[in-house]
Amino acid sequence: MDQTTMMLFTIGFVLLSTGVRSQRPEIVNEILPEVKPVGGIGRLNCTVVNLSLRMQVVWNFPSRHMVISENKDIQVLNKKIDGRWKYEVIRTENLLRTTFKLVISHLTEEDSGTYNCYVKMETVDYEYWPIKKGQLTVQVPPTIRPGSTSTVVEVEKGEDVNLTCSATGIPSPNITWTRADGGTLPTGGALSRGHILHLPNINENDRGIYRCVADNNVAPPAEHKAQVLVFFKPSARPVETSVGQAENKLFDATVACIVSGHPKPDLQWSMKTNQGIQTINDDEKHLIHKKISEMLKDGEWWYSLTILNVQANDYTDYICTASNIYGQSQAEIELFSTIECQGALCPSLGTLNMATCTRPLTWTMLLTVIGLLRLIMLWR
Ligand SMILES: *[C@@H]1O[C@H](CO)[C@@H](O)[C@H](O)[C@H]1NC(C)=O
Ligand SMILES: *[C@@H]1O[C@H](CO)[C@@H](O)[C@H](O)[C@H]1NC(C)=O
Ligand SMILES: *[C@@H]1O[C@H](CO)[C@@H](O)[C@H](O)[C@H]1NC(C)=O
Ligand SMILES: *[C@@H]1O[C@H](CO)[C@@H](O)[C@H](O)[C@H]1NC(C)=O
Description:
With 380 residues, this protein is mainly beta. The protein has 2 helices and 28 strands. It binds 2-acetamido-2-deoxy-beta-D-glucopyranose (4 copies). One 2-acetamido-2-deoxy-beta-D-glucopyranose (NAG) binds next to β3 and β10.
């Protein structure tokens, strides 16, 4: 080998090695955002070209101050659950490209955020290291935040109220308000969007249950109910304005009224007599009941008064009076005399009082026919 050839080789070698040294690695392709549900597996690809031996590809998670991996080595506490590591880096090579795939399993809400992939180069200032960001979104179904959500709200008529419904979830849930009974909202329409439901100038018809639903398309949606109680003067109405019953046969009669009001009204039954209005107590002659009924709206109560063994002097007007600190309201029900027993509790077929009951004719006819048939049988 002569000197010229030696020099050419040397120059060539120097050129080649400086060339190699000046080759800059680069992260090619964007790191595609990953969206996965809680408990799932997230994968982020970092693909590097012109990688040399003295460089490390690093994944970190700045929001939790974590350097997760260097090349294939996991740098954080790593646990294997159900046969899967929490963190894993899978390295694959394809021509000049090397991919470091970060695999995060058993996803929780805390895994959501931005991950960085960078190429650590010992001889280069870190500011010049190639870096790219990858977004991992862990979907979390909505949950209502109880502390900042209205549950029971008491208001005076004419006041303004804001019902709030606060929910967490990823992505951030959309919140809608409706009335639990399907009715129209005081602001019009059946549905209101947004976490605040504004109820201006409240009146007693606005009382009731309001429902908020938080939904972010990650099942299941969360639901919450808020009750609005409006202070108002009671109102009383009869269930039936008049009730009939036959006298002197141990039959009972029941009169009833439905009352509303807030605070919950006190109820007093009374009756008109020749001596004026007389209050009625629960005694051997009168039974007073509060009843549950599906007919009732929120903040309504059903009260009944049963007059036992109706006698001539029981035929009069009965009055229910509902009162609270805002005032009172009355409803009147008339008890009138009938010839036959009225109501579901009338004595049934075969008892002495059968003839006085509401539909004696058909039964009598039926019995007659049966009797005749028996007679015919006997004759044979
Ligand atoms: C990551 O890269 C591998 C090949 O290296 C490919 O099969 C896979 O689809 C990529 N995944 C994502 C989420 O980009
Ligand atoms: C990688 O290095 C080669 C030379 O070896 C160069 O031609 C190419 O431009 C480099 N690629 C990138 C993306 O820098
Ligand atoms: C209710 O919210 C509205 C805005 O949505 C605000 O203007 C109003 O002051 C709030 N009212 C109350 C009673 O907080
Ligand atoms: C919230 O509602 C808007 C409009 O209906 C919709 O485009 C968006 O996807 C919803 N967001 C979620 C998280 O469901």
